[in-house]
Structure formats: C-alpha cells, structure tokens
Amino acid sequence: MTSPSTTLSLVDTDPAELTVDAIVIGLHSQPTEQDATPAASLLLASGAESIAAAFDGKLTETLALLGATGGPGEVIKLATLGTVTAPLVVAVGLGAEPTGAAPAPEVLRRAAGSAVRALAGAPRVALALPLPDDADALAALRAVAEGALLGGYRFAGYKTRPQPTRREPVAEVLVAVPDAADTTAQAEITRAQAVAGAVRLSRDWVNTAPNELRPPSFADAVASAAREAGLGVEVLDEAALQAGGYGGIMAVGQGSEAPPRLVKLTWTPEGGGNGKRVALVGKGITFDTGGISIKPPQGMWEMKSDMAGAAAVGAAMLAIAALKPAVAVTGYLPMAENMPSGTSYRPGDVITMYNGKKVEVLNTDAEGRMILADAIALACEEGTDYLFETSTLTGGQVVALGKRIAGVMGSPELCERVRVAGDAVGEPAWPMPLPDEVRKGMDSDVADISQTNAGMDRAGHMLQGGVFLREFVTDEVDWAHLDIAGPGYHSGEPTGYWTKGGTGVPVRTLVHLVEDIATNG
Asked: Cβ(206)–Cβ(304) under 8 Å?
C-alpha cells in the first residue's frame, strides 16, 4: 500500500506573484518591552519581504490579531483577499531569530513539515522560508525540502467509505530560491526526493496492518522494490535458514505459521568505490506478541512497528541505490513473527546461533536480539569495515532517553560518528556504555550467554541488548547499535514533519553515514 505522493520543485518568481493555493512564510518571536503591542513581538523571517510589502507593513499586526506568537511549529492562516496572487498566506513559527544566523536546519525542517501538513487539501503550495546565502544555504534548502515532503505524508489507510473531513495531502510544493536553475540547488531537490521517498516508504511498511505484512510478504515487498532500484537481492526462506544454521531466526519464527526470512540487499559502486565496506542490519519482527512470555494487551497493537529497523534499512538501501555513493553497502534484514503456539520457542531453550554460540533463552519477548545476532554474525563473516544495526529493541531505551532520542552503543568512535550524523539530519542519538557488570549479569550456567540478565533484573535493560549483540561482532569490525524503540514509532499527535505512526527513523541517519564514509572513509 503506497501513500499519496507529493512533488517538489524550485521557483525563483516573486512569492507575491506566484499562482498557488497558499504561500508559506516564516515568523519569528522577539522579546519586547512590557507595554509593547502584540505585533511588536513578531518579526517576519527573510523570504517574506514582498508579501509584507503587499500588506503595506500591516502583516505582523494582522497576524498578531489572529493570535500569532511565532512559536516553533505554530501555523496561522490568513486570507489575502487579493492582496497577493495566492488566496492564503500561512505564517509558520520559527521561534526566536538566531543572532547573526539563519534558523537551524531542524527548525526549518519542522516548520516546513508543520505548514505542509496544515495545508492538506490545497493542491499547490509555495514555501518562502528563510534560506541563507552563505555556506549554510544548501543545508537549509535540504531541510526545507525534506520537511515539506515528510510533513505532507499520510498513510493511505483502510477506510472503505469517503471521509468528509479527510483532505488529500498537498500534491505539489514549490520552494522559493534566488535561482531556480542553480545546479547545486537542483541537486539538493533531487537528493531530498530520493531520501524522503525512502523515508515515506519505510513509514508505509511500518504502518501496514500486521496481517498484511508477515515475513514472507514483507520480504517480497522489500525484494521487489530493491530489484527495481537495481540492487542485488537474495532471500533466504525457512528451508535455507534451517540448512544454513540460523538458529536465532528459526527459533523466533517457529511459533508462527508465517515462516521467517532473511533478505540481503547489495549495493556495489562502479569501480569498487573507495574500498570500504558498510553493513546495515535491521530488526524485522513483523509482529511481536512476546511469544510464550506474552506481552500485556495494552498497546500491543503498536507491535506491528517492531519491524521498523528492517523497514529503515530496506528503505535506506533504496536511497543509496539512487544516490550512488562510492562505497560498497550490504543490507541484512532478518524477519520473523513472534507468536505463541505449540511450536514456539520457550524460556529455558538453548539455541545454537549462526556463529556457533549457545544462547540460553530466558524471555521469549527478547526476540529481536536473537534474529539480529544471526544477521550480525553473517555480516561479519562476509566481511565489513563498519556495521550499523538498528532496531526497536528495548523499552529501556524509552525509559532512559524518551521517544525522540535513540540510544547508540558499540565502538566509541563510531557511536560518536552516529551522534554527529543524527544531529545533522534531525534524528538525535545519544551514546550509551556497555559496562562489564551488565555482561557479567548475563552469564549462563548452561550456555555461553543468557539472552537477558540471568536473574531477570531489568536494570540497564537497554544496555543488556547492546551487550548481547556485541557477542556476535568480530573484533576487527567497528559497529554501532541504534535502539529506536521510542523514535521509530510516533503514537501521539502529528508534530513537525512527524505524522502519527511510523517515523522512518533512522533512514536519514543511515544514508548520511554511508555518504560520509564514501567521502571520508
């Protein structure tokens, strides 16, 4: 199921003269004296000059009467009554004006997303948001373009009757720039369409009902999209997984009538690239009941999102195929459905993993690490310099870092590289330790390692997941584990360029990291 798409293009016509359904401008808040008028607390952002002139300098006063404050993400609509060509001016809050600088890219990304989402039902919209004319210009343009495309996302859904209040997403977005023919600006639009398109597809996969996206159908969907993009594709079915010794994937998947899969996607750059190799691994639990260690019913329906890591990796590989970075990249997507049945794996089972290690199962709801361990071991066996793995792995990540910031664990230098990349694209991640005492708590009396703390102590729950996965990474490989249990799925009201449901985190981080490695090694 594919969500409605939004097209994006550049325009250098005077915003006041654009033939569009709405023109979006930025609005800053600014400090004022106690007895100042409400309008004095508002400041139009650059890009809105011709619109302000058309209103004879009364635009901020009018916006103040409508309750505008310039707060981040605030959207105020104003009918123009013929003052400019567009019938509607939309002011989106950017917060306080930065001293001597343009708004941060993430501020622009969220503002563009908020505005385009609020304008659903308007076929054609133009964005006249502040774009600096210095070295930060392209980063700002990228942010506005991505925000517009992601804020305009809406899952197609399953409604069988027309919804009177349901408006179609904006079909066409024009971004006002000084020179629409500039090749570097055009390249940013092309990149934004590739990356945001990948994010939107990952959201579609996460939002699809779990009865329609079980491991075989998920594998087919990813494989079909990857072949169309020109990637190498290999899909291991249950027979191949059994024969290959993928004990973790088979154990988790054996409780479901929908058998597990392992999808491998390969990007090979022309001429071999820079000689580096990158592995991306994503958790693909298409639905997680917890298995025999069954979850409580409250919120279990959101466990359709437990494949968000695999969705992100699969989508990132599609963006990589479009962007063609000069580095070899292989994606590994282990997929299973964790169901309780007479054939489910049990607490107390000892599983032989792909790399031969024996794992004592204590909690069948700690299934993600089981399938990831096999995929990580395979990636290391096949050879890689950098390994990035992402998964909705632990509730402990949400407790520790909330619903917007991912936890990242692994090689310290690579974790810092992930943090920097996340900050650059608006997908923050925070490095976390992997203490020796956490590993000691996972010692097993009967196997090489317990799947969780041997005493079922949940202290350091997020770290236990990272410590377990570390056991399957070979010494020569730099690796990073991104726990996206919080940011991978947004259950609240839409905000910025996040809509309700799948977020697409961390597609943009992974793409940024791959491009960085292609450029800098």
From this structure: yes
Give catalytic status of residue 227 as yes or no: no
Q: Indicate if 77 belongs to the active site.
A: no
Query: 363, 423, 420: which is closest to 394 by C-alpha?
Result: 363
pTM: predicted TM-score of the whole model, two decimal places: 0.96
- Distance (Å, rounded) from C-alpha 259 to C-alpha 250? 8
The residue type at 25: I
Contact 155, 3 (CB under 8 A): yes
Catalytic residue among 369, 417, 419, 508: 369
225: its two tokens: 């999209």
The pair of three-digit structure tokens given for residue 52, joined into one six-digit string? 């302000």
Which one of 77, 124, 295, 358 is the catalytic residue? Answer: 295
Helices (H), 32-170: 49-54, 59-65, 105-118, 137-151
Query: Cα–Cα distance between 351 and 258 in angstroms, integer?
Result: 20
Element (H, E) at 489: strand 489-490
Confidence band (pLDDT; 50, 70, 90) for 225?
very high
Q: Average the pLDDT over 261-283 and give the result.
A: 97
CA end-to-end span of the chain: 37
Q: Cα separation of 176 and 190, whole Å?
A: 16
Which pLDDT belongs to residue 35? 66
Encode 40-68: b = buried (16+ Cβ within 10 Å), e = exposed.
ebbbbbbbbebbbebbeeebbeebbeeeb
DSSP code, position 495? B
Tell me the C-alpha distance between 129 and 78, whole Å. Answer: 16
Give residue for tokens 């909705």.
392
> What pLDDT shows up at residue 87?
98
